[in-house]
Design goal:
By secondary structure, this protein is mainly alpha-helical. It has one domain. The protein is 71% helix and 0% strand. It contains 15 helices and no strands. Helix 8 packs across helix 12.
Amino acid sequence: MFDIRFIPIFLCGLIGGSAALIIGLPMPFMLGGIFGAASYVLWYERAEKRLPKLSRWVRLVFMSIIGAMIGSRFSPELLTLLPQFWISGLALIPFILLAHSGSYFIMRKLGGYEKLDAYFASLPGGIIDAAALAEEAGADLRVVTAQHFIRIILVVASVPLLFLFVQGDAVGSLAGQTLATTSYDHIDVLLLLTIALVGLAAGRITHLPVSHMLGPLLLALMLSVTGVVEIDIPPWLGHAAQYMVGTALGAQFSGVSRKLLMRGFGMGLLSGSYMLFLAASFGMILIQYVPADFGAMFISFAAGGLAEMSLIALSLNFNPVVVALHHLVRILLTIYFGSFFSRRVFKLTENK
């Protein structure tokens, strides 16, 4: 049964998302939804009151839609790019291991987080996949969400500024676009929802890690790359899915103290800066082996959001497909390694 106490949470998430959209934040309804919902939860609980738990299925269903949307953005052009960038693709493996281990050290030794929380908070993936893995493992979603929230904002906001200061290249008007289109019809919506639901079911049946996101993503990718389907994403659907996931994650901030938030901000700055330094180092090395310059490689390895880093690449005249390809591989490898090592290091069992 729906609890009416959830209404203000979703209302504040909508206000936060709308405000983030107006001021031009990346992933506005995701990050704004987290901030708005979390702000309300923290305000409500200041008087020792506690809100009820929001069902995890709110996130699972809309995560599957986001997975389908990401996978559908890849075209047959991907097949011609793969042979040219296999070296940088393989380089993502040591990058992920170094980024994760270094950030884990920061979270664990400097931040003082519990081992399980530090492990998932330091994953070089996105908010959605990291939160999904953390939830399956029983980690504190408040810590994990806060850390990834801060890191992604730092990376997405600082990368364009770095190019502006170093090269004089500013992110132009394209930075306000999304990977969605306006030339869609009801068939596109139906296809996306069908892929999301079928992929969600297939992922759970095959016991994929983060099955509710990875199942739809892989199914949509295969259908799009092979040319079976070509889907135009409605802008409102992307905003709605991000809003629901972001608000649901913000609701998990129940019980978070001001001290935890301040510590999270400091650790997020350190972890994000470390990952950017690592991305720059890999970019400098890889330009000798792939047909891309330093800027394209740096953006390809900077651990921000897939859609946002692709848009930054587009605005700076780098190939967005190359950038998106690397970020997709990073996300998939992070999910795999994150799930694989968590089960062995922490003796966790797979969520059936």
